[in-house]
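Before a colleague's protein record goes any further, I have to sign it off. Would you go through it and say whether the fold makes sense for this chain? Take the sequence as given and treat only the tokens as open to question. The record follows directly below this note.
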Amino acid sequence: MASFTSDVSQSLADKLREEILNKIEAVYASVTNAVINGAVPEFSFYSRASWECLSFSEETGVTLSADEKKMVRVRLDNKQSVKSFAYMTKVLNIMYKLVQEDKYCTKRDIYYQSPDVFGSQSVVDNVVDNVACMLEVPRWKLHVGVQIPAHDKDMLYLHTNAQLVIVVEKDATFQKLLTEDFCATFGRVILITGKGYPDVGTRLLVRKIWEQFKMPVFALVDGDPHGIEVMLVYKYGSKNQAFENHNLAVPAMKWLGVLATDIAKLSLRKTALLDLSESDLQKLTDMLKRPYVAPNSPLAHQLETMVQSGVKAELQCLDSLSSSYLTQVYLPAKIHGGDWI
């Protein structure tokens, strides 16, 4: 039975590999044909430059808007895009070889293959996202991932008897929950942290667990614009990965805290809070304009409350009430009382 399952998995993997190679070969063919016919070779992909270029639904999160007017075209006859065309060609070649040989690498590995060519890691990051968008293939299926497992092949057989998942923004809070033995005292909980802004591997894992086990997924983040951004990326997906979000977003995720309304409710001391900076206020203003905020009035209310209060609260502010307040009072009350967004 195990052998049969293994054979089926291998067969599916081989089929997927062939499909991806065919897609890349089709891109090569289009460039070659353009040259032969005296036309200008170009690469095209949907823009993710602004929220206006994207679509949103509660079921899938942030996705691409299939509007031809919102296509980016990287042409070989345009001085401004010649370098981009060369970068995309090089990354396509690397991806083709990785898929063909069934090997994997990180975006960092790609940069170090030709640092003199790319110039910076950010160039590689952007090019990899654009190539994946052009091919309409998630980058982990193009064998480009991150340091932790970020591929379907590493997540085939998941088993758990847990009842819920808590995704923690910061490692310091994650370690605090472990140190205070939260899982043992509260119950069957899966704790996950992306150590700040989440990478694709962490988002893929959270999505897989939610998709397979249909258990509640909660976010525990700082009550500041950055923490809210982290929660929103898990829940709705990021702008840059709009073409991958249907595999990564967890639209059912609930925001436990720290909520803006918690600050007044808990009577937190002013010395435990921080004033919002100008960049914080701009970030909140921009968030309020996003397509998924208006339909979600509780979320919009939290953002507006934070703007009006002029303050933000890190998770550590709860220590001002008690060193064990987070684990023994705050989280149990939130989860059992349904106090989330």
